């Protein structure tokens, strides 16, 4: 009943999502983590440090750079013979790789898992997060993508053995032409413990600097509504919601955000919500644990000034 977790990594750094995925499947059996790519020694060492990991399997090769599914799936298919569960985070790689693997294995993939109830029972959100479906998948193996933000990270301090995994290189039909990256020193939005989100009412990209200042004081990641992104006030990768990132922080501070259904779909895992809004009737105000009713341009500087005193 072993479990194979496909590690998520970028630029030689293991994504925090991997430790969360390991925690999610910890009860299902001994866990091997598969690390694929080039220059991944540190990634493998970090994966071996996650509590609960039995082994780290390393597939070195240029064919894995770019994370293309057509290069990854054949190896996963070969390895799958030894595993009951083949799992990844529900990120861009997992969403690409796991359905293809499931098709090759003639299995139904169970995607976006937010709770593992047993070896073949899982919960996943449906209807843009408005309902939770319990899936019982009676099939010989399970191919899963896990919504990492729904789980705590497994602890560190392990030193699992690291083993090479031989493979036949597969030339992908795709190639990377360019990668455009956003430099940021704030935490990863999808796994941050505190998120400060701004809406279109922030009014401008300069106005968003106020949101950024507050986020920095709190060590928080920055989120935005689609309306704010569409208006050009915030970059695309800050968008939270149905067509943006799914977040599950301990604290979400929603500033000038009405609480449209498509935004709420992305914040349902938030443990506590603070809404700052001039409209006491806004849906997000009604949903929030704490609401501050007033003008964000007054309240945020006051909050920052109070935090400066700490
Ligand atoms: P608004 O709804 O305009 O709300 C602004 C809020 O700011 C109001 O509550 C107002 O009272 C408050 N306000 C105004 N001035 C102040 C002030 N000075 N101080 C304090 N409060 C103030 N949206 C997402 O966020 N994420 C998604 O992933 C997403 N996906 C979508 C997918 C589809 C297919 C569609 C159709 C829509 C999607 N949307 C998404 C858009 C969504 O429907 C809403 O339009 C959007 O979330 C609204 O953003 P907002 O809260 O910033 O703006």
Short description:
This protein is of the alpha/beta class and 310 residues long.
Would you mind describing this structure in some detail?
Residues 3-180 form the Electron transfer flavoprotein alpha/beta-subunit N-terminal domain. This is Electron transfer flavoprotein subunit alpha. Belongs to the ETF alpha-subunit/FixB family. The protein is an alpha/beta fold and 310 residues long. The chain has helices at 16-24, 41-48, 69-79, 92-105, 208-218, 226-230, 261-264, 283-287, 296-309; strands at 3-6, 9-10, 13-14, 31-37, 53-60, 85-89, 109-113, 115-118, 121-126, 131-136, 142-146, 162-164, 194-198, 221-224, 251-255, 272-277, 290-293. Strands 7-11-6-1-4-5-12 form a seven-stranded parallel β-sheet, sandwiched between helices. Strands 14-13-15-16-17 form a five-stranded parallel β-sheet. A three-stranded antiparallel β-sheet has the order 8-9-10, with no helix packed on it. Helix 3 packs across helix 4 and helix 5 runs parallel beside helix 9. The model has no long low-confidence stretch (mean pLDDT 94). The structure holds flavin-adenine dinucleotide. Residues 199-201, 225-228, 239-244, 256-258, 260, 262-263, 266, 277-279, 282, 295-297 line the site of flavin-adenine dinucleotide. Flavin-adenine dinucleotide is lined by residues 199-201, 225-228, 239-244, 256-258, 260, 262-263, 266, 277-279, 282, 295-297.
């Amino acid at each position: 009943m072993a479990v194979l977790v496909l590690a998520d990594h970028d630029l030689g750094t293991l994504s925090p999502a991997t430790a969360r995925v390991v925690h999610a499947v910890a009860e299902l059996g001994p866990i091997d983590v598969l690390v694929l790519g080039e220059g991944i020694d540190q990634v493998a060492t970090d994966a071996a440090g996650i509590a609960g990991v039995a082994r780290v399997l390393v597939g070195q090769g240029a064919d894995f750079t770019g994370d293309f599914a057509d290069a990854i799936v054949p190896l996963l298919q070969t390895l799958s013979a030894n595993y009951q569960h083949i799992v990844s985070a529900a990120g861009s790689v997992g969403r690409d790789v796991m359905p293809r693997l499931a098709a090759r294995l003639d299995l139904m993939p169970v995607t976006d898992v937010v709770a593992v109830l047993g070896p073949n029972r899982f919960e996943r959100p449906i209807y843009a997060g408005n309902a939770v479906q319990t899936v019982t998948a009676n099939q010989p193996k399970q191919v899963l993508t896990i919504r990492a933000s729904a789980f705590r990270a497994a602890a560190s301090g392990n030193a699992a053995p690291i083993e090479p995994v031989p493979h036949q290189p597969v030339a992908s039909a795709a190639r990377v032409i360019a990668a455009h990256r956003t430099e940021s020193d704030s935490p990863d939005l999808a796994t941050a413990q505190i998120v400060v989100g701004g809406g279109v009412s922030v009014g401008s990209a300069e106005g968003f600097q106020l949101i950024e200042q507050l986020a920095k004081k709190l060590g928080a990641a920055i989120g935005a509504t689609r309306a704010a992104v569409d208006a050009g006030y915030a970059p695309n990768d800050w968008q939270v919601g149905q067509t943006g990132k799914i977040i599950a922080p301990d604290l979400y501070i929603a500033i000038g955000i009405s609480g449209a259904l498509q935004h709420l779909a992305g914040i349902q895992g938030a443990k506590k919500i603070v809404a700052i809004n001039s409209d006491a009737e806004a849906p997000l105000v009604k949903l929030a644990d704490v609401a501050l009713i007033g003008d964000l341009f007054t309240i945020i500087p006051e909050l920052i000034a109070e935090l400066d005193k700490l």
